[in-house]
Amino acid sequence: MVSVDSGPLPGWRSLTRSLMGMHGHVPEKQQENATWLVTEFLLVGFSNLPDLRTTLFALFFLTYLVTLSGNVTIITVIHADRTLHTPMYRFLAALSLSETCYTLVTIPNMLARLWLENQAVSISGCRAQMFFFLGLGSSHCFLLTLMGYDRYVAICQPLRYSVIMRPTVCLCLGALVFCSGFSVASIETSLIFSSRFCHSNRVEHFFCDIAPVLKLSCAESASKALAIFFLSILVVLISFLLILLSYAFIVAALLRIPSAAGRIKAFSTCAAHLTVVIVHFGCASIIYLRPESGGNPDQDRLVAVFYTVVTPLLNPVVYTLRNKEVRVALRRILARSHAILK
Hints:
two-stranded antiparallel ribbon, 342 residues, single chain
């Protein structure tokens, strides 16, 4: 789990290993004279709630099943119904696929640890989880920005929509979104794992997130935290501001529509996207737009549960219940399936 790098007294290393073998830890006074090098992490998770393990497992497992089935349904409906083969719904399918992978990175591991009570994770495993989590999270922000731009073009420049958002352009923009997201993740994980970890191997979280892992770094982490903070601003704040800019133009265009019914119909295509944007960027801002990660670990875990478990559930619910075209397409597919079975 941990190893001792150096000590001031002859035989200290062998004595330390012996003590660790007998008791699992080194006396506090001796720890002060040695450098601990962490070789694996212990994810604290929900270990402070032992009586709620079964309840939490059941609750998170059911939520995950609903989330997974909801996103798979959206992807299937958009793929199967030709009326939904438009840029807006292609981006929605990409969003659902991103959400599916996003939850796959964190929730199954969390469920396994709740069930098996195994908290250990290797440093390489922790790094991989953080890379994919940050990559998909950043891509999610950029994808929501792209969806906002799509709504802007559809409402503000409807006659040029088919030219501006032609399939090749959409494909290139989608590729750019995910390349940008994983480029940001690569920089952040490289910064965090560029130095060794020491003094403690307890990660105060249920997955490998930035702040709790960065606290365990042996090197001075203030400069790293500042660099990551500015990257977070780049991803979260700039993406959100671009979405706000798109909606400013959209509102201005809607105000020029003479009838109230026309304004409501035009804006209804944006309502689901706007709901998801508010929830996603609200949670991301609370966690990542802080120059210093000195928050309460219990509060951070609660917010993290919301944006890793609840928010992915919200997206398919919002897009299926609030989107008439998706509901109609789903009914058509179910009717065809029923007719085939007969």
